[in-house]
Design goal:
mainly alpha, 2 domains, two-stranded antiparallel ribbon, 63% helix, elongated
Length: 98
């Protein structure tokens, strides 16, 4: 059946003048949307259709984790920014009291 899908997309390209790659991408997106509605779907996935034989493959995408040192630096920068904002607010309040 997979090869028939590619043939159907080629036929649509010829008859309707819609680029084959556009049709292929739209079908991949539709299949991904349907896959995400299945009970055991992974959170991050990608669907690919081989344009030669029509084989459909679903890949689980594994997102790289941030190194602990990067996370710690980001958290420290956020704390420093919050502390700076708090000091600015205290200074404004003290200036307005007098």
């Amino acid at each position: 059946m997979s090869k028939e899908i590619v043939e159907a997309l080629r036929l649509l390209e010829e008859e309707k003048g819609i680029n084959f790659q556009v049709l292929l991408t739209a079908l991949e997106d539709a299949l991904l949307s349907a896959y995400k509605k299945t009970p055991d779907a992974v959170e991050y996935a990608k669907v690919e259709i081989n344009p030669d034989d029509g084989e459909i493959t679903i890949y689980e995408l594994i997102l790289p984790e941030k190194p602990a040192a990067v996370i710690a630096a980001e958290e420290e920068a956020a704390r420093a920014a919050e502390a700076g904002e708090a000091e600015g607010e205290e200074g404004e309040a003290a200036a307005g009291e007098g």
